[in-house]
Amino acid sequence: MVSGMRGTRKRPNWINKTIWETMCACWDTEEAKKMSQIYSDARMSELDGLGPHIHLSGPKSYNQIQQDLEEELGRPVNLGEVFMKTHTRPDGTYVDIKAEKIAQTYAKNGQEKLAELETEAYTLSDCASRARDLTVDDYTTIFLQSTEKDSRGTPYGVGSLKDTLLYGKRKQPGDTSSFVAIQEKLKEAQRKIEEQAAYNERLEAEHSRAAAEHSRAVAEQKDKIENLSMVEKYLRQTDPQYLDVVATQSAAPQGTPPPAAS
How far apart are CA 161 and CA 159, in angstroms? Predict the structure, then answer.
């Protein structure tokens, strides 16, 4: 408001004439002009040739935009999503080169993290478990690693949300731990329990199949033995030559071939 009055030099009704003249005299000093130019140059400076900070948040704070997004989507949103909302035009283009560069880096780092989790899950599990999903805190950490920081370490593109961060994670009022993170950890624990239960079920099914196969083989062997016993009984009752062969085999030394049939 004051900067606007300084440019127009139109005194508003709520400032009396004496104070207004003092303010104008101060603005006209060489020192004030020099400081004004320094601040103007700083605002319009091009960090690494990427230009000044441009966003589309309008009069809304980043906190309000985040709350609106969470209400719209029905879930917590991370810093990266707020950044995309405030730095992307309706046609999908970015507000400037800097925003585009950060968004591309953010997407690349996110994909690399997902690939890392998939590799870890494949290596450490029985190859049946899937990689865990990234949490809101994970995405926030990835965004903070992807964006730029000013000389005071303030992340670019987070606006008033910088005050909601604690060690790169979203703070919850009155609690140092994130309620959302706890919920996600509970979901992760439940997922692991379900995966273990499914694995145990598969293992039990395999054992059941092996036991059934063994029982079938034993039953087949038993049937064969019973059939051979019936054949032997029949031959003993109906074929005298069979009895002679059996008697000869029993009396002959081991390895002696049976006599030729007459």
Answer: 5
Ramachandran angles phi, psi of 67, nearest 5°:
-65, -40
Cα–Cα distance for residue pair 111/231, rounded to 1 Å: 72
DSSP 29: S
The pair of three-digit structure tokens given for residue 76, joined into one six-digit string: 């917590």
How far apart CA 146 and CA 137 sit, in angstroms, is: 14
**pLDDT averages per 10-residue partition of the chain, 262 residues:** 64 77 82 72 50 54 84 86 85 84 89 84 63 81 84 76 60 49 80 88 88 88 88 83 78 60 51
Burial of residue 40 (CB within 10 Å: 0-12, 13-18, 19+) is exposed
Query: Can you give the three-state secondary structure of 203-229, one letter per residue?
Result: HHHHHHHHHHHHHHHHHHHHHHHHHHH
Q: Is 191 exposed, middle or buried (0-12, 13-18, 19+ CB in 10 A)?
A: middle
Ranges of beta strands (E only) in 116-173 are 165-166, 169-170
Token pair, residue 243, equals 């009895």
Bridge partners, residue 18, by sequence: none
